[in-house]
Amino acid sequence: MSAPRYTSVDDYRGGFTAYNGAGPAATAYADRVLADAHAYASGVTATSDATGGGCASAAGLTGSGVPGKVTVAPGADRPGVGVQPILLEYLAAMAGLYGKPIVVSTGTNHSQYTVDGNVSDHWDGYGADLGMAANGGSDDGPVGDRLATACLILAGQPPARAAADARAGGLFTLANGGLRIQCIWKTDQGGNHHNHVHVGVRPTG
């Protein structure tokens, strides 16, 4: 899979560096996450393994030795219509921050319209749900908080604010690097988002 022409995982270097502070340690961390994200993004495939890798440590987003892996669970996509590469790259970058593999429990196999009557990002492959059951978490629990935090950091929020917003929950729509990014967690806005984190990523141009 080649990088989409709109952006590259390398565009997220600022978020990776900011997450780990400043100086040589931050640069080394960003280098490692980017390398892992590139490696896994180039080999993302659907698999029959729909189990997650457990949760990160209570300290927050941590490295585990297996960052960057994204698994699309069986039945998550409609036949012949998969998640867009740009979204898979974003999810791989999220997994690098989260420090655990991420399982997409619902990709394109989703109703065409949201509860508000808008066309869902899922329908054309720009939306993914990260179900708590598939990712070793619980409704409104800390696993979802950490996934949502990673989503918001990559969308450009400072880590402390991203963590606070994720814990509070809500529907967040942000623009960063030519992308419109949506992170939804712990809210009924747009439907029940207590048992999954919704990540929507699409080019703005």
Spell out the key features of this protein.
205 residues; 5 helices; three-stranded parallel β-sheet; 7 strands; alpha/beta
Could you please describe the fold and organization of this structure?
Helices cover 30% and strands 17% of the residues. It has 205 residues and is of the alpha/beta class. The protein has one domain (9-203). The strands form two sheets. It has a four-stranded antiparallel β-sheet with strand order 4-7-6-5, with helices on one face. The protein has a three-stranded parallel β-sheet with strand order 1-2-3. Helix 2 (24-41) crosses helix 3 (85-98).
> Globular, elongated, flat, extended or rod-shaped: what is the shape?
globular
Give the DSSP E fraction (strand runs of 2 or more residues).
15-25%
Give the biggest beta sheet.
Answer: 4 strands, antiparallel
- Computed over alpha carbons, the radius of gyration is 15 Å
Mean pLDDT: 79
Strand order of the largest sheet: 4-7-6-5
N-to-C SSE series? HHEEHEEHHEEE
The number of E-state strands comes to 7
Question: Quaternary state, please?
Answer: single chain
Helix/strand class: alpha/beta
- Helix amount: 25-40%
In DSSP terms (H or I, runs of 4 or more residues), the helix count works out at 5
Distance between the termini: 21 Å
Low-pLDDT windows of residues:
1-6, 42-67
Count of discrete structural domains: 1
